[in-house]
Amino acid sequence: MAGLKVAGRYAQALIELADEKQVTDAVLKDIETFLVTTNENKDFHVFLNSPLIKADKKNNIFDKLFGDFQQITLSFIHLLTKNKREMILPIIAEEFIVKMNEIRGIVPMTLTSATKLDDGVKASILEKLNKQVKGSIQLTEKIDESLIGGFVVRMGDTRIDASISHQLNEMKQRLIR
């Protein structure tokens, strides 16, 4: 929890600095790239958390990997590395994206279904959810055949489970009681 608070403060500071320099979109792109790199590469995650690798060596590697980043983003990463906080960079990146979405009124939503949904069905679901959401929905679609049928919607802490597998599990629980 403390790591999340610190990450939120760092993310907010980076947002304010990027906004002041008018490079918010470019920094957001850098942060998204950094997060993708971290999530897709376990070795990079190990590298971030390694106390054996000195800060200057880590910063040299960051410069080589992310040389096309904005100077603000690289300086931010260097500062965190110097202060031995590089292990929370992925959390800061996630917080940065969440805060930027809040500022821009974007609500991330994941729609998971057993098969690809028909455009009409998807439009109907989005229409109903748009009424409950302030801002615009950023939709991510996933396929999970274990749902058997139906769909599951996730928006922040909210989960709407209208899947067949969920209904079967509920029926099973009622029969067991």
Please give the structural blueprint.
Blueprint: H1 2-20, H2 24-40, H3 42-49, H4 55-65, H5 71-82, H6 89-104, E1 106-113, H7 119-130, E2 136-143, E3 150-155, E4 158-163, H8 164-176
Parallel strand pairs: 1-2
Antiparallel strand pairs: 1-3, 3-4
Helix pairs in contact: 1-6, 2-6, 4-5
What does this molecule look like?
The chain has 177 residues and is α+β, with helices and mostly antiparallel strands. It has two domains: 2-102, Peroxidase, domain 1, CATH 1.10.520; 105-176, Dihydrodipicolinate Reductase, domain 2, CATH 3.30.360. The protein is 61% helix and 16% strand. The chain has helices at 2-20, 24-40, 42-49, 55-65, 71-82, 89-104, 119-130, 164-176, and strands spanning 106-113, 136-143, 150-155, 158-163. A four-stranded mixed beta sheet has the order 2-1-3-4. The radius of gyration is 20 Å and the shape is elongated. It starts with a helix and ends with a helix. The model has no long low-confidence stretch (mean pLDDT 92).
Summarize the structure.
This protein is of the alpha+beta class and 177 residues long. The protein has two domains: 2-102, Peroxidase, domain 1 (Orthogonal Bundle); 105-176, Dihydrodipicolinate Reductase, domain 2 (2-Layer Sandwich), CATH 3.30.360.
